Amino acid sequence: MPPGSRPAGRCAGGAPVCWPWFGLHATGPVLPAHGFARTVPWEVTESRALADGTTEMALALVENEQTRAQWPHRARLSHRISVGHTLKLALTAVNTGDHDFVIGEALHTYFEIGDIDDIRITGLEGAEYLDKVGGGSARRRQDGPVTFAAETDRIYLNTEYRSRMRHRRRALEAAHPYRQER
Question: Average pLDDT of the chain?
Fold first, then answer.
């Protein structure tokens, strides 16, 4: 978010950062859905142009009274972006405190597509997910490629997969590395 700008509510487009929770907050229903990371200032900590024409940038979430009021845990959140022949996004959360806590995070990507019937996602076969259309509490396992025959809203859990979305002649590949560090 640029300095001096104000969040206009929901983000639509790009890859908004959802952190430190995804969806509604478990105990604070008045807190913003998908956390606060997409509505507070970030600081550019690094920026460089590479010889191949790629531009890399690193951002860090800036803690303030608003973030501390919603999230009492000590943590560092960074977002690395690389733009060149390919787009690479990496989100890293580090617990800087002395007690464990649980987070939810996502790069909530949006993709322009034509007919939803033309979409096929491979690489998540066998992954566990929550079906939010069906209430979101039952864990299910992905059987075969992801296709869309009805409303679909899923959260794939702890993915260590590489998925590929195919739309007609276009393909998008996404890596979902999941590591737990302290």
Answer: 84
